[in-house]
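ok trying again, last paste got cut off:
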Amino acid sequence: MTEPIVSIRNVSKKFSGGVIAVDNISFDIDQNEFFALLGPSGCGKTTLLRMISGLETPTSGQIMIGGEDMALTPPNKRPTNMVFQSYAVFPHMTVEQNVAYGLKVTGVAPDEIKRLVAEGLEMVKLTHLAERRPDQMSGGQRQRVALARALVKRPKVLLLDEPLSALDAKLRDDMRMELTRLQETVGITFIIVTHDQDEALSMASRIAVMEKGAVQQIATPVELYEHPKNRFVADFIGKVNLIDATVTGQKGKAITCDAKGLGKVELTSASQVGSAIAIAVRPEKLKIGKTEPKSDRILKLQGKVRDVAYYGDTSHVVIEGKDGLDLSVNVQNESREGGSGVERGQKVWVHWAPEDSIVLTE
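nice, full thing came through this time. structure:
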């Protein structure tokens, strides 16, 4: 095992008025990892990133980078570089001058600056725009200038604070792939802050989900999506149906529970009799049919189609069940003619396999 590049040890940050932005968190980030800090606004993710960079000082705890305690190391002496949401490129400088700026400030020799700038521009595919100024470029191109400027200094850790939030949807998708390619090419640890689940899931090798200054779960994208630790993570990562239930019986690894809108349900879990749980199931795991499925090995209910939203490749269908249970279903639009194949007011059956259910106790 190699030593982690960043170690967070019992770090807290309190602001005036008793506001706790980060609450006693500890975890490691590995070398050459693409790590995401994900959570809603105000969860503490940007404050944590700023503490890693040195722009904020922890109230308590320790931050180690490359095995060294950063407590007395100012931001400009840390082996990190940050790319901000606003890009922060200099409007009066050309692309080449922007990328060279940090190297000049630190006294790198002119010949070495020229070589590193050329490498940086090639890395982000901007060699042909070296003489342009930022106001002559698109948002995506300005973002790549900011990336090149940060990367030419060869930091051990690149910090990205909501770097794609100012871009339009299509460009954001393109830049996700670009950032992933860049990280693999340069072999530097990337730490990105985002509130966009799709962004984190598509780029990061591991994700820390934060809420109210605390880390709820750290895992790979697949692990977070398919095996969330609690209701918050399940609800925040992608779309999910949460069905309240009470455990009424237990035998070995199997439980019987009384679930809202479903009645008696048998699932696999270690939950105790009498405990309240939530049955989580992702919309793409549900199937819609016009007739009752015959199998006894599935979970099923009859309901009425309340809403249908068309998204091109998929349709999002909301089914009204009994006892106030609404279920969201993602339907793949495989036909150019039919869309989801259902319409508002139609009675349908919804069913799914028990193993596609996630039992949440927290």
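cool. The helical segments are 45-53, 95-105, 110-123, 139-151, 169-186, 197-203, 221-226, 231-236. The domain at 239-360 is CATH 2.40.50.100 (OB fold (Dihydrolipoamide Acetyltransferase, E2P)).
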